[in-house]
Each structure stands twice: as structure tokens, then as C-alpha cells.
Amino acid sequence: MSASTHSLSWPANAAANRQGNVLSQHINHYGLSQLPSCRDALIEHFQRTRQYSIDFSEPLTPEDQMLQGMADTSPNKWHLAHTTWFFETFILKPQVAEYQSPDERYAFLFNSYYNRVGKQHMRSKRGLLSRPSLDQVLAYRAFVDAAMVQWLENASDEALAECAFLVALGINHEEQHQELMVTDLKYSLSFNLMAPAVARPLPAQQDPGVLRWVPFAGGKAELGHNSETFAFDNEQPRHTVWLQNYQLAERPITNGEFLEFIEDGGYSEPLLWVADGWFWRQSKKIHAPLYWEQEDGQWFRHTLAGRVALDPHATLSHVSWFEASAFAQWQNARLATEAEWEHAAQLSQDDFFGSNGFSNNRFYEPQGCGPIDHSQTPRLRQMAGHVWEWTSSAYSAYPGFKPFAGNAGEYNGKFMANQFILRGGSCATPPGHARATYRNFFYPPDRWQYSGIRLAKDAV
Amino acid sequence: MSASTHSLSWPANAAANRQGNVLSQHINHYGLSQLPSCRDALIEHFQRTRQYSIDFSEPLTPEDQMLQGMADTSPNKWHLAHTTWFFETFILKPQVAEYQSPDERYAFLFNSYYNRVGKQHMRSKRGLLSRPSLDQVLAYRAFVDAAMVQWLENASDEALAECAFLVALGINHEEQHQELMVTDLKYSLSFNLMAPAVARPLPAQQDPGVLRWVPFAGGKAELGHNSETFAFDNEQPRHTVWLQNYQLAERPITNGEFLEFIEDGGYSEPLLWVADGWFWRQSKKIHAPLYWEQEDGQWFRHTLAGRVALDPHATLSHVSWFEASAFAQWQNARLATEAEWEHAAQLSQDDFFGSNGFSNNRFYEPQGCGPIDHSQTPRLRQMAGHVWEWTSSAYSAYPGFKPFAGNAGEYNGKFMANQFILRGGSCATPPGHARATYRNFFYPPDRWQYSGIRLAKDAV
Amino acid sequence: MSASTHSLSWPANAAANRQGNVLSQHINHYGLSQLPSCRDALIEHFQRTRQYSIDFSEPLTPEDQMLQGMADTSPNKWHLAHTTWFFETFILKPQVAEYQSPDERYAFLFNSYYNRVGKQHMRSKRGLLSRPSLDQVLAYRAFVDAAMVQWLENASDEALAECAFLVALGINHEEQHQELMVTDLKYSLSFNLMAPAVARPLPAQQDPGVLRWVPFAGGKAELGHNSETFAFDNEQPRHTVWLQNYQLAERPITNGEFLEFIEDGGYSEPLLWVADGWFWRQSKKIHAPLYWEQEDGQWFRHTLAGRVALDPHATLSHVSWFEASAFAQWQNARLATEAEWEHAAQLSQDDFFGSNGFSNNRFYEPQGCGPIDHSQTPRLRQMAGHVWEWTSSAYSAYPGFKPFAGNAGEYNGKFMANQFILRGGSCATPPGHARATYRNFFYPPDRWQYSGIRLAKDAV
Amino acid sequence: MSASTHSLSWPANAAANRQGNVLSQHINHYGLSQLPSCRDALIEHFQRTRQYSIDFSEPLTPEDQMLQGMADTSPNKWHLAHTTWFFETFILKPQVAEYQSPDERYAFLFNSYYNRVGKQHMRSKRGLLSRPSLDQVLAYRAFVDAAMVQWLENASDEALAECAFLVALGINHEEQHQELMVTDLKYSLSFNLMAPAVARPLPAQQDPGVLRWVPFAGGKAELGHNSETFAFDNEQPRHTVWLQNYQLAERPITNGEFLEFIEDGGYSEPLLWVADGWFWRQSKKIHAPLYWEQEDGQWFRHTLAGRVALDPHATLSHVSWFEASAFAQWQNARLATEAEWEHAAQLSQDDFFGSNGFSNNRFYEPQGCGPIDHSQTPRLRQMAGHVWEWTSSAYSAYPGFKPFAGNAGEYNGKFMANQFILRGGSCATPPGHARATYRNFFYPPDRWQYSGIRLAKDAV
User: Could you tell me which chain A residue has the CA closest to the CA of C443?
Assistant: First the structure.
């Protein structure tokens, strides 16, 4: 779910069908063999997801929803329209013969595909779409939602089975955009010195105490999704890897721990940084995580709740891979590989990837984890739903990787260069969206996601 | 009135008082020696000007008023607030002891000064000010207007005399921003493929016939403003120049005439272009004036009335100095010097710089001038209020130039490098704002103003 | 051996000693426990390596040796001086009390360290060092060589044992620069339309026939160097990995096969490219491998033997990772992981990594492999010493990776972001330098090395 | 003679003949009506000029003559070849039927024309022409010189008359390149920390005392060249201007006077700078004139005689127009217009534009003018041959300007945008080359010429 993946591409050309139709392998993601019981679940999931976008946007003004702080981010209004365009384009137009779009021009305005001629300017200019208005976009959503529900209720079992994967993909696609709605808005509002507050502030966190380590035995392990429920193509197939023994930190790094790195001169010591990271730091004049600023010796952070004093016990977020890597080097540690991370997450899955595993505090900043009982054996905490944890693994294909069939084939595979994997989900990830096998990916300088650090090291 | 001059700078430092107080020389711009009669005129001018900004903005949505198409342009809402900030900062705060701003943070948000540390990001990020909302900005305007009128009505004659120049400057400053409100909006809307129409289209224009030339005798001439009424510092002092004999085209170039240049390969012939212009053309891939686009062999233009077919008889606008210069070269002609232009304008002034000299068709594109009676002696037409006419003169100080005293000193002088003079005013210039001595200036690649071409050549 | 690794960094600071002294683990790379027999071998290896640089430079004029075609490349004269500076700085100055440099300023001019303040301009300005002259640099080499041999002959066994690793590192460092001397010169000469020839042309190659595949069984495998002889830190430690079954192409791709990709529109089809690769191709207007140019429908290549017609049977070189990846996609294949490549190389090692495994045709372009007997079971060919083969593996640390101790710690680890691994060595790699575990790495757009393509795919 | 004008362009196309043949108006520049006496003078001038280039180059190594410090500068070897190519291309090839170039490829390599397709990379890559070698270039010069002298001696009077202007232009063209040979070499050597000395150092200068002013009466004045001897097209025609009364400083600013500006914080005060200048200063981190550097509180300068301590009494050089303008502002003065400068120079011409007016200390830095007798009426000093003096006048066409006919038409006119006029000639200008009407021009940030400051102000 990099900055780029919210740009789905659905060209209608021959190349798109090269990998063969994989719908059949996805057909029972929603247990569609047990239709029609699944039909109701799908409708409910669709409606709940669509409503969640509206709920998030509710406190925002039409002007707030226009903001585009940089080319990598999109206005909230655009997210609302683009996720709607997805269902219109891939379900309604092909399936509903009499369907008429409220405005045929939306097909271009809200299609994120940008590799074809003449339209590349649009991505960085999404903030210039004052028209259609927010009201028109909301009407577009309502129109498409009504048509979708009507179709979902009335489609034949065969038609529904044929499209169930695309509907599920559309829901997951919208969930990805919901996370971007949070992070893009936060970024875009950060330029306003009036520091608008659109969410509740995080209460003061408790000191989690010194960092402890959890050991894991290596050897043969299984990595990746088993394909029995919905998952993205890049999580598949499940396959064997071999791990050395390793250790993970029991929890992510806190703001206070990162502050020590700053105060120890971590941003001024080239030997802690990879070469590209040092160049980035120098040329961009980076001295602290994104949104941190110092005033009269005191540190503050820009948040969705306005400008607040830095809480040393809260979980660190908004660091780049370069900063995460330098911090780990400073600690004589390293980042985990994604295989180590997933292996450890599987072993502890019951603790944090249940249906309630994700906190509902999306509008908070990442919490800390509070005092830890050090008489207990250390165990992993906050693996899910707090911050995306940078790994040392570059984003690449699993052995036997097959892109989604058809137009969905560009969803993930085309980004397999120059990006690093993040794991775990953040406070902005919608509940139920992520899982232990989920692979997020961003470029090493990217910082506007809720990205943090969990340290790893070799076994002693 | 370059892109930069709407960025007034009012630092309170010693250097600002170097040139001595020039208020005395401006004190009777509004006939302030005849107070209080002048007081009413000033109030009326203030109110009329302030209302004109509101009238322009009325058809625009809050989202439209957020748009910032490039760093050189500003959102309409920002223009509305910045012009208000001017009166608050330079009249109300110094003059009205009990004055309280509705929000002290506006003092920073709407100050355009950008040479001081740490705030340079703001200019290109004005489009990210979703807060304050448009409603709050309009309330800010109403609050300041009420306070201004109250002060104007009740100030002592002495206080009024002392501030009359700054009030007049604030009015002229707002008029400059009114022109930018038109051109910035036009530019920012141009990225929206829905081509919103916020103004009436220009009716089909009549063919003006072949271009004729008007001869002028050179010799000793007077250039510049006589300082008896309001004028900017850069128009002064009036001084002697020497001109050779010359000729000016009776009217500006039309779209159709420029189309001939395109069709003759003018954009592909390096010998027609100055070196920097050719580099600009190549690197920016320029093939036509701004807002022109060709589709299926037909030419269209983006306008405030949406996308319209190119009218060959309408006056050409939105060309850079580079394009104007190349066109003139292609015609074996040249651009006029600003001295030639002003000299000719003075001789013909009655025809076009009277109180009705400026057309009221601000929301139109520049008109053409219709069929010309060729049995008559040619005379200059459309010198005022149609398009700004690029001259061959680089923007520099007149002999004896003195910047405005105090904080207004940065208004014009600091831009005297790398820019060219334009003369005459455009269809977007507010009525009564420009005059024959008025010096506008932009960089040679700039095109988002209503800038056109009037040819000149040496006497035969 | 990326463009950056020829920039050794040897800061004298505390951080450099963090990893502890690893000299002890390297002390017997040259069998130093069997001194003094090893002493002679070391002297011979030192002298042979030093002479090899001179031999390469011999046909070049002083002006040729000044050329720096881009910041990533260095002039030949600079390579000659920098490799000399290495021995002076790390052996002679610490070990020989009475050693006096011919010119103390060389310590700065030829130190490639660039992370410290104020000297960053130097890297891209190496081509501006007209002084010292080539003669002076050659005298510097002779002076240092004499001092080194004298020291190597007379040092105590203890002193030699202590420094043996650094001497070996210096020799390997010079071998890396020898490869860069070839590729940097080729690049820098390519701008001269006179197409100077400084090497013999490659004779016409024979058609190798259709590409066949060699299957390999996966499972548990060992990867990395066993540390018993000299190897770079990034090749170590040897560790276990798990592989799926896979296939490798028996030989690298030829020019002719890549030409089919071009003629099939491969450079115009975005779906074949990763997103960053497509952006690279578009913005750099890439239409063919580096050094290829088309004239009147005929393809030519710039080589060290001048401009020659493209030989369709010769091995392809000078493609970026982006091009390699797109080509593989077009073939419904993929690039090998570095683990697959090394696993396959180990199984076939006798064939190509023997002492004579590397061809001596350094001054040729990469050869093809000639007609293959298709009655035979396919086997891997040209794995070593032809072209560096791009893998799909991003450059990262092996599990348990420990950087070299002391100043050598920056040699490799700091480049572990944004680069891809290449394997096998090229026609420009000095004989004996590379091995099956050797990890080369470059950025995905880099093309000035002899980089080519060997396809891989999953087992059927 | 901007950085760009040493790039002559001689396309053979129709447009080149638009302005009609002006050879007739130049035919008697060398008194060709009095042939053959003039023939000998022309030969002598040709030979002397050609030798002067060789003399300058003599102390430089082949490697020195390869240096190209930035795209605006060219290697000395390229200057030697390009000036030769001029005579070959415009005299020998058209006039001498049997002429054969030593190498036809030189016609491309040493043609500076860069507006035609496919060859634009060459300008910034001139430093990569290791071949042809310096020896080959010197042989090329000798070959062309011999052919030229043979032709000059034997051409018919008619042929000579027809070509005399082009021969004179070629001589003046080479003189312009001679100045660039000095300034380009100085710039390119400045990157070498070994600070090579290729010229004698300037002896300590004497304190000229406080700056005095020389008043001039305005009114009607004549500006420009009378066309009776050789002059460039941009100096013509002579025409009338009108001047206000003004004053000029008696001498240029010294290093010591500029140091006061630095120490008074001149580089940190935005109000002293034009807007573009302040942006330039900020983005380029400019804190002092080019070649100045401070070490332990002491100022040093890079010169052709190596690195030397700053002499406060020597004339300031290597400042940009931006710095000159800010300095003048700081002094409550201004730069002269070019009309004021030329008017003053005409009145004082006998003093400094005689045959010995230019100093022969080309290899020195600009001298100071020593103690001035303050009992005397102040008069202008050092107007010629010390430093090019920035004026406030943008480079533009004189009224009635006609470019040279034919291929020489691109020589000057195409640069008439964004550049400022400099007057007077510098210590690097060849003796006899400049004159009171001579117009040099560079971009406002350019600093690698010997450019300095003479202040002006309005009459009291």
C-alpha cells in the first residue's frame, strides 16, 4: 500500500490477460460456494466499509477535503470519488447493462492510471479539482452505492460468484484509501500554522520501562498467505524459508528513546547512516522525525489534534527507513527481515491479530504500551495496529508469485523495486484490514505514514 | 505589478527609512489640502474598491477560492484576506489604539513578506490554507471594512492627511490584486478537464482587416508621471528622453495573425528566437500560446467561460515576451520601447485613457477591434484595457528614481532585474487603475497575464 | 563494487572500532602461519597487480587519462593515484616510521572519503586535476611500490601478519579499480564523435542457437563465503537458505535476442516495466541499451575498439536492471535470485571458476558462447567473466553480517539500500578477482558496467 | 562577449540573408580601397593575433588545456581549435577551391553552433575531447595559418575586398576567445587544491585613498560607434540620447572597500538586494566574491598565480551584477547606465583609450590605481583595461540596430534578453580589442569574468 498503490490501473489491453484468469482461485474467498448466505455478508461488509469513509470525512469542511500537500498525497474528496469510481468501473458498467454514470467525465477524473499518454499531470494536480464539488462527490457515492446494493441483492448466483473477488478487492482497496485519507490529511494540514484540530488528542502515556528482547528459534519456516481467504497477490504463495535464530524487541521504540538518538548526535554521524540516507539527510536538512519541531528547547509534534507537546512514552512514528536504519545502527542492533517479523507474528498471533486485535483509536496518535511487568517472560506487544514497522527487506516477489489476473495485475507487482517492506498495520489502518502476512511497502525516504521502529538482533 | 509585487513587504527596520519621508510629496494625491471634501471621495473609493473584490468572488465556490495552480498564483481567498490585512496592518493597528484583530494569527498567514527566515514555504503553500474558511475571511473583511470606514469618518484632518497616501496605496494595491484574482483563477481552473465556466463567453468578433502603421516623429520627449495625482514610485519622476522616429501598429495582433506564425513554423525556427527564448521553448515543449490546444486540427482555448473555439479576430493574449519577440522578428518588425509606447499614448490619450477608456468587460476575453475604416488616417486603437503589451524595455529605474518611503520601499524597486515592461492594461485591469505612464513588469517566460503584442518598427 | 565502493573511507574515529578487531579472523588468508613462504607470494601478487594497472594505461595519452564522463566515473589517472594512496595511507604511514610522501597534498587529493565537511565538490571534479601530471602520478606509484616491496621484504613476521589483511585488501581494492578503469574509460570516450579505438575489436561470433533451460532442485542450501581465503565482508558469513525448485537459462542473452525485444515494442509497453523503471525510461528517453545507436536502420555500438556494427551473436551488455527486468517480463520469465545463482554456480563451479575460468580478453567486448551441441544435456555456460548478471535480489546484509573492522567498515555495508546484486564477473574483471560468492551491486538505472541478463523461471 | 557569444553560428539557410548584404558597408574597415598597402597590415594583424593565442598557451600542459570547469567555460585546446575552424570555414573553404582540411571531422567538433538537432550535448562535454591531442590541434592551427597567409598574399584585390570584413571579424573573434582563455582557465584551475601558478603574482598595491566623484553635465549626447572602423553590430548605429546630470566615481571599487560591505553584513541584508539577487545569494550560499575564501580570519584569493592573500588596495573583480547592485545600494549610490558610462568615456578618451591605454599586465590580477593627488580636480581613472564595469543597463538593441549580414547575424542579437551590459575591458582583454563604444554582456549571476564596480549617482 505504497503511495503509488492507491493508483490502481486497469487498462483494457491484451497484455492484461497474459497470466490467465485467476478468478477461480479466489472465488471462495467469501465462501461463495455457500451462496447465498455469503451474499448478505458481502453486502454488509460493502456498506460498512463505504460508511466508514463517510464517517471519517464528516468533521472536515469542503475546503479541508481539497488539500493536497504533495504529489504523493491526494485530497480527501478525491479518495471518496476514486474508491467510488472503482465499483462503478469494475462492477456496475460491466454487469449492469442499463447503468448510467451521473457524469461520464468522472471516468477520467477519478481514474488513477497514469502510464498512458497526456494525462500524467493529473496526479500532482488533484488538489485543483474544485469541481465537482464535495456535494456532487457525495451524491456520486450515494448513487453508486444504491446501484451496487441493488445489484448485489439481485444478481444471479453465477454473476455474483464471478464478481465476488472484484467486490472484495474493491472493499480492500477502499480500506487502503481510508488509511491514506488519515495520513494524507495529516500531512496536508501540517502546513497550516493555525494547527487545526480534527481529532481528539492522545492522553498522556505511561512509561513502558526498559526495552527487553524476545528470542526466537530459527530453522525451517512457512511464510506467506495460504489463499483460503482474501489476500493480496503479493502475500502469496505460502512458501518455505530458512531462518537463523534471532531476537525481536518486545515493543516498538518510543519518542523518548528516539530523542536520545537525536541528543547523542545521531543525525550528525555519517557512520550510522547508509550512503543514500546520509545524502537524503544532508540535502533535505533532516534533523528530526516528520512533524517534530523544537521551540525554546521544548519539542512539539503536529498531530490531527493540533500541535501538542512530545510525549516521550508514546510510540514513535513518522520516521523514514533511513532514520530507522540509523537508529538501529546506533543501538548496535538492526531491523528485522520481513520473514523474521512474520514468523514471530505467527507464533504470537492469538495475542494481537484477533478480530479485536486492532485498536479503534484511529484518531489517536500511536499509543505507548504502558508499564510492562518485568517479572514475566518478555513477549511481543503492539505488533498490530500501532505503527507500521520498517523491515530490512526490500519489496520483491515471493517465489512463485503470480499477479492478480486481468486489470488488477498492476496492483502490486510493478512496485517491486526500490521500496522496503513494512509490517503490522498502524493506528490508521481500518480494523480487520491487515493481517500477519500483510506486506506494506514504501520508499526509504517516505515518512508521512505512521511508520516506526521495532529493533531486531542476532541470537546471542 | 509582477507576480511578485502582490507580495508587499513591510519590515520595521532602520533601512526602511533611509530615503526620508516622502509622505509630504504624496499628501495631496487626494487633494487632501481641500479636506474634508476629499474625505468623502476617499471613503467612496475605498468602499467601491472593496466591494468590487466581493462582486468578483461571488460566483465562486469556497473550493474554487482555494485553488493555487502554481507558486506564482494565489488562491482567491488569500487575495481577499491579504488585501484586508494591508489596511489592518498599516492603518488600523497604528492609528486606532483600541483596534483588536479578529485573529492575531492572520498577521502572519496573510503577510506576503518572504525574505525573513523560516517562512518561505508559505508562498507556494497558500492553497493549503483550508482554515480559516471562506466565511471567516469574509467576516474578517467586513470587520476591517467597518473599522476603516469608522476611522475614515472620524479621524482628525491631520491624521487623515498623514495616512491618505497609505489609504490610496491600499486601494491601488487591492486593484492590482483584483487583476491577479482574474488571472490566477483562470490559470488554476485550467487544470480541470471539466472546464468550468464562471463568466460569459465573448461573442464572435469582426475581422479588423490588414494591419496598418501609425508614424510618430521622434526628438525630445517627456516620460513618466508628473506626481500630481497618485502614481507608483516606479513611474516617477517625469524626465526627458530622446526618441528616433518610429511607427506603431494601429492595433494589437489577433489570434488569427498569430496562428499564421504557428503555421509558418515559427516555433521551430531558432533564428527567430533570442537564445534564452529558444532554450525555454525547447525545454518546456512550447508550441502555442498558453491555454491554446489543438484537437483534430481545430484550435480551442481555455477561458473563464470554459473551453471555446479559437476566434481568429479576437485579440491575442497569454503569450510570453519570448513569443512576442519571435513573432515580431518573423514580421521583420520589433517590439516598441516603453518610451515609444508612452510617447504615442500621450499623443492619443484622449481617445483611450479617459474615464471610460477601460472597457467593463473584465469577464470577457480580450476583444478584437472590429472593421477599421481604411479610408481614414490610421490611428492607435486598443491601447488601454485590452491586453498588456510587451515592450522591448527591461524594467529599470527612471533617472532620479526614489522608492516610496518607509515600508512601501520594497514595492517596486527590488524587481528591477530580469523583467520586461508591459504597457496599457488589460481586460482584467480594474477601471481607472492604469494610466499612460503605468509600468507593469513580468519575467520573459510569464504567460498567465493577459499579455499580447503590438508591433513597432523604425521610421521608413 | 558499486560506483560508490571505489570510494573508501577511513576516518580515524571511535565508531570505527566498534565491531572489534577482526584482523585475527583474516590473518591466514595468505596462509601467514606458514611465513615466510607466503611472504613471497604476497610480494608477487602485489607486484603483478600493480603492473596490471600500468599495462592497461599504457596505450592511453595523458589527455585520455584526464577524462571524467560523469560524476560516477573517475579519470584513469585518478584511479592510478587513489590505489597508490591506499597502500601509502594504510601500510606505509603506520608501519614505516621514516616514510615521507612525495607530496603531502596527495593525501587529500586522492582520498575518496566524502562524508566530511567542505570537500564534497571533489568527486565530480576529479576530471579537473590537470596537476599533478600523469608523469608525477606514475612517479608516485613507483615511489610507493618501491617502499612497499622494501617493507614487505623486511618486515618482521609479526608486522607482516598484522598487516597481511590490509595488503590483501589493497590488492583486491586495486583489482576493483582496474575494472572501473575499463568501464569508466569506455564511458568517457563515448562522447567523442571521433570514436577513438584503444583496443582490438571482437571477431564475429557464432550463433549459439535457441536458448535452453537447466533445472535445479531446491531445498536447503548453503550461501556465502566460508572465510578460509580472502573475501569481502558482504559475502560472509556462510549461512543456510531454502530454495524452491528453479531453472536457469544455459547462457546469457545475446544482442540479437534483445533486439527482438526492441523490435516488438518492449520499450513502449508500460506493463512490462516496474513503475520506477517506466518513469526512468520516459524521463531519460531510453530506447536501447547504453552505447547502441541506430543509423539508417542499422545498429551500431560504441566500444573500446571504436564504433562497430552490432553483432547479434555476441553477449548483450550495458543494460540497466530496469531493462533486464522488463526483458524478463517480456519473456514470461524472471531474473534469478542471488541465492539461486550462487547455488547453481556452486554445482557447476569446476567448469568456470577455476584459475583459468576468467577469459583474458579484457579488451574485447563480451563474447558469445558459440554453437551449443543440443544433443547434450544443457549445462550452464559463461557464468564467470563474461557479463555481470543482474539478479532480482536487492543488496542487503547476510544474516550475521559483520563489517570489516576499523576503517574498512564503510567498504560495503553503507551501500545496502536501493541497489541490486549482480553476479559472475565480466570481461573487464581482472583474472582471479571474482568468485562464485562474489556480490557486486549497482543502482537499477546504472548501465556503464558490463551488465547483462541471464533468465530464470520457476520449475515446471 | 558573453559566455554564449563565443559560440558562433553560421547556418547556411535562407533566413540568414534577410537583412541584406552589409559587406559593402564594412569594406573599408581596413581601408581596402587603398589596397594593397592594407593587405600587409591585415596579414600582420592576423599573424600577430594568432601568435598571441599560442603565447598564452605556452606554459600550459596538454592536461591543463583539457580543463572545462563548467558548461559556460571551454578548454583552452578547444578555444585554439575553434578559432582556427572559423578561418577554415569562412575563408578557406569558400575561397580556396583546392583546400583540404587536415581532418573533416573537425568541422563538427569545433563548430560551436548548437541550435540544430542532436548535437547539444557537446557544449558541456568539450572537456571530454582527449582526441585530437594538443599536438594535433597545434598542427591544425599551423596548417590553417599557412593556408591563410598564402591566400591573403595571393588573393585578387576583389576577393580580398570581398572577404576583408570576415577576416577582421575572425581576428576580433579570436581576441574575444583570448579573453575567455584567461578567465576559463582561471575558473577551471580553481578546483585544484594544489593551486597551480601559471602567471606572476601582482605586487602589493598602493592605497588609492578615499573615493571621489567626477560630475558630468547631461543633455543631448551621441552614443554608439560611427562605423568608420571595425566594430560589432551591437555597437551601431551611432544615435542620440538624452542624459540627466550625473556623477561617476573616479575609480573602481577596491577589495578593501568591498570587504567593508561584507563586514557590515551586506550579504545578510535582503533590503540591499534585488529580489532575484537575494534568491541567488540564498540558494547558492554566496558570502563573498568568487575566488575569495576565509581561513582563520584571513582572506585569500585564488588567482592565476596561485592562492594569495587579499590585497585591499587592488581593484575588486569577480563579482556578479547582483553583488555590484547590492554594494551600490549599500553605498546609497547606483550603477551607471551604459549611456552615462560611454558619454563620460568619450569626454576622457585621450587618457585611456589610446594605443597604450590597455595595460600589458594580462597575467596580473587587476591593479589598483595607487595614491591619487587630491589637490587636483578629480578625473576618471582605470576606465579601460582593468575590470569590466557592470552597468544598470540591460543588454538590448540600439535604435536602428541591424545584425551583421549572413551567418554572422547570430553573433550578438540573439542574446538581447536577461543580460546586463559591462563596459571598459579588463586586464584579460587583448590590447587594442576594446573601445569606448564596446558592449560586453553577461547574465546577472555570472562572476568568472574580471567584472568589477564603478559607482554612479545623480547630480547633487
Answer: A418
Residue for cell digits 490611428? B379
Residue of C nearest to A15 (CA): C271
Closest residue to B415, CB basis, from D115, D275, D417: D275
Cβ of C271 within 8 Å of Cβ of A394? The answer is no
Report the pLDDT value the prediction gives residue D318, as an integer from 0 to 100.
98
**Number of cross-chain residue pairs from C and D with Cβ atoms under 8 Å apart:** 77
DSSP assigned state of C267: G
d(CA B327, CA B453): 9
Q: Looking at this predicted complex, what is its ipTM?
A: 0.90
For C35-65, b/e burial (b = at least 16 CB within 10 A) is beebbeebeeebeebbebbeebbeebbbbbb
Distance from CA of A121 to the nearest CA of C (A): 13
Q: Do C61 and D130 touch (CB under 8 A)?
A: yes
Q: What is the pLDDT of residues A48-70, one digit of tens each?
A: 999 999 999 999 999 999 999 99
C-alpha cell at D229: 572602423
Quick check: D63 and C130 CB within 8 A?
yes
CB burial string B83-108: b at 16+ within 10 A, e below: bbbbbbbbbbeebbeeeebeeeebee
Residue C274, chain A, CB below 8 Å: the answer is yes
Q: Which residues contact B141 (CB under 8 A, 6 or more apart)?
A: B50, B54, B80, B81, B84
Whether C414 and A274 lie within 8 Å, measured CB to CB: yes
Nearest to C121 among D63, D129, D191 (CB): D191
Interface membership of A403 toward C (CB under 8 Å):
no
Cell of C61: 595519452
- Cα–Cα distance for residue pair D456/D460, rounded to 1 Å: 12
Higher pLDDT, B307 or C32: B307
Number of H helices and E strands in chain C, helices first, is 12, 13
Answer whether A61 touches B (CB < 8 Å).
Answer: yes
Give pLDDT tens digits for A187-216: 999 999 888 999 888 899 999 999 999 999
Place of cell 516477489: A397
Give the A:B interface size as CB pairs under 8 Å.
Answer: 78
Tell me the residues of chain D between 241 and 270 that have a Cβ less than 8 Å away from chain B: 241-242, 244, 246, 269-270
Residue B276 Cα, gap to closest chain D Cα (Å):
7
Q: How far apart are CA D426 and CA C8, in angstroms?
A: 44
List, in sequence order, every residue forming a beta bridge with D215; answer none if it has no partner. D247
pTM of the complete model = 0.92
Are residues A275 and C4, on separate chains, in Cβ contact within 8 Å?
A: yes
Portion 121-150 of C in contact with D at CB < 8 A:
121-122, 125, 127-134
DSSP state of B81: H
Please give the single-letter amino acid code of residue C215: P
Determine the distance in angstroms separating the CA of A77 from the nearest CA of chain B, rounded to an integer.
Answer: 11
CB contact under 8 A, A133 and B192: no
Is pLDDT of D28 > 50? no
Q: Cell numbers at residue A227, please?
A: 489463499
